[in-house]
Design a protein that fits this description.
300 residues, mainly beta, Thrombin, subunit H, 6-stranded antiparallel barrel
Length: 300
């Protein structure tokens, strides 16, 4: 990727909280990679693996997919694809967060219990796949800052700063996708989202597109972006020109791919909004989400 491509993402991420002019200038200088790790998450789980001695085992992290933060007023959510979250085990994510007082960046772990995920109510039928969106309402981590997509709510369509589009994308809209592939042909020494760009190439509109023997739901879209296993749950945003005031919008979430044919499938942003409406009813009382070690989350 060239330098111009990376600069095109510099306006994507919005820092939680009120910033002074000096803080805003400092924020603009922050690299794209440090910002993306506070917005886009690699979901994973721990798996016991035997080593040399039969009586000894160690825990290894196994990737499950990608997710991202959405902020609705003062509430915080994690959004991903349904099939990523719908597991028999809890998920977790390492999040690079910034300390409010010092500005220091620190890795913390986010614990996501399997019984707390909320799924889109359309579960499909014998012929049609379910809507592949999941969300979970979580607590803020006091004293830390993360990056979020901002959502104003259905009744405030014109509110400044809203990043969840109120119109689903249509061909041939240019889009960008960032996610955490599990296999890309070479080894990465740390977590970094991989970016792709393309266009919305087709909208189903009815029972029209089949995937693994079932029709996709009517609002699903095809995009001409190669994706990898592990990209499920990646945010899909509009391409934009950083030299103009054009806003960054969340357009959907990636949930499927055919790598050999170089396309992927996404659920549009309207499905994300509908899922958030349900997740908003969740209570956070007595729940733990954050941890400095990833194994025993502290009470927020």
């Amino acid at each position: 990727m060239n330098k111009k491509f990376f600069l095109s993402f510099s306006l994507l991420f919005i820092l939680l909280g009120t910033l002074t002019v000096a803080e805003c200038q400092q924020e603009e200088k922050e690299s794209f990679y440090s910002k993306s790790n506070r917005l886009i998450l690699r979901l994973e789980h721990s798996e016991r693996s035997s080593v040399e001695r039969a009586d000894h085992s160690i825990a290894r992290s196994k990737p499950d997919g990608t997710a991202f933060f959405v902020q609705w007023n003062d509430e915080l959510y994690v959004v991903t694809a349904r099939h990523v979250a719908e597991k028999k085990y809890d998920l977790r994510a390492k999040v690079w967060s910034k300390l409010v007082n010092s500005g220091e960046t620190k890795a913390v772990f986010l614990h996501l219990p399997k019984n707390r995920w909320v799924y889109h109510p359309d579960r499909g039928d014998a012929e049609t796949r379910s809507v592949d969106v999941a969300a979970i309402k979580i607590s803020w981590l006091q004293g830390y800052q993360v990056m979020t997509f901002l959502y104003a709510g259905e009744g405030k369509k014109e509110e400044k700063g809203n990043q969840l589009s109120f119109q689903d994308p249509e061909p041939p809209q240019p889009v960008l996708v960032f996610g955490f592939p599990s296999e890309i042909g070479f080894e990465l020494t740390e977590q970094k989202p991989l970016g792709r760009m393309g266009i919305i190439s087709m909208v189903a509109g009815k029972k029209f597109i089949k995937m693994e023997g079932k029709f996709l739901e009517e609002r699903a879209c095809l995009i001409d972006i190669p994706a990898f296993p592990g990209n499920s749950g990646s945010p899909v945003i509009n391409q934009f020109d950083p030299t103009t005031p054009s806003p960054v919008k969340l357009l959907g979430v990636l949930f499927g791919t055919n790598p050999k044919k170089h396309y992927a499938v996404i659920e549009p942003v309207s499905r994300i909004r509908e899922t958030l409406e349900i997740a908003r009813r969740q209570s956070l009382e007595g729940l733990s989400f954050w941890s400095s070690t990833g194994s025993h989350p502290d009470k927020p």
